[in-house]
Amino acid sequence: MYEFKYQRPNTVRQAVNALAKDPEAKILAGGHSLLPVMKLRLARPSQLLDIARIEGLSGIELKGRSLVIGATTRHVEVANSDVVKEALPALAALAAGIGDPHVRHRGTIGGSLANNDPNADYPAAVLGLGATVITSKRRIAADDYFKGMFDTALEPDEIITKVSFPLAKKAAYQKFRHPASGFALVGVFVSKRGSEIRVAVTGAGANGVFRVTAFEEALKKRFSPKSIEGMTIPAEGMNSDIHGSAEYRAHLVAVMARRALAEA
After folding, report:
1. Burial profile 145-174: b = 16 or more Cβ within 10 angstroms, e = fewer
2. Which end of the chain lies in a sparser environment, N or C, as judged by fewer CB atoms within 10 Å?
3. pTM above the 0.85 mark?
4. DSSP-derived pairing of the beta strands 151-152 and 60-63
5. Which domains does the chain have, with CATH numbers?
6. What percent of the chain shows pLDDT beyond 70?
């Protein structure tokens, strides 16, 4: 691992100012996204800005018809929260299935979304629920936030502070897990909120998380696994590696979508 400086800002403003002054600095929250790539020497930040203890960046709160989760809230807190289990049980279940206990006790929702790993679980929930990513500068709709593999709409000096999830009448998440890492080879989040239906897929796409509009249109008639029975998506644009071909992942998208609909 390369040499770097370590700082612990006391406020979001201090962290933002430090990022603005040093383009090579990186934000550290749980560390499960950043530290592994540093150990592999795939990243060489000049300094780490530890925001894990900044007051007001963690916590879970129900505000009207939205569930608001602070950026440094750990996965295990989301999974065990009675508020989340009552308001959005699908989100609690998703958090409970992330990685292993070590990852869930250290990893944060903000870190996961800022990194936008193509196999991460939270992007599917954010896109699948039409959530809003709240930053130190603005509010970003889910459809505008994800730009591609490891790429987001975040600016270099912008920090995620909260995520606001609208409550859904029906929602569920199903994934085909990598047996070692727990990452999603394919994960599908489905939701129904009023007349809006969303189907978001993680793990399968070469450009990261995406929506399946063909499934969404079919489900407008009836929110049921039978509505997409026999439907598939093209293998073009899917990931292909030693764990599964593009064709296999395309097949799994339909399978996981039907399972998620059955659960929802």
Report:
1. bbeeeeebebeebbbbbbbbbbebeebbbb
2. N
3. yes
4. unpaired
5. 5-166 (3.30.465.10), 170-263 (3.30.390.50)
6. 100
